[in-house]
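Supplementary notes for students who missed Thursday's class. We covered one full example, reproduced here. Read the sequence, then the structure, then the short commentary at the end.
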Amino acid sequence: MPIVTSAILNLIVVLAIGIAVGLLFNRFGISWLRRKTAGATGVGDSTYALVGIAGSFIGYHVAVILGLLPTPLTLFLAAIVGAVLTVWLWQKR
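Structure (token representation):
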């Protein structure tokens, strides 16, 4: 697989991980009352998805910097951990 195709595929997977984690946290990670009041203040699906994307990029690139390169699966697991940690910390603000 050419490098450009691999890079685009990695980008798409990291974006999908961030969006999925953000939406899952928005749907299942907060209480019903908080979800209703957060919707009134403008913090909704798109905000959680964007925070999840940012976290997945952070996790992915920290794993690359640390040299966890034997398999792409390791990098994607680091992206999941980064997204979960970022959304969880952002939610506790």
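Commentary. Residues 3-28 form the longest helix (26 residues). The chain has a mean pLDDT of 82. If anything here is unclear, bring it to office hours.
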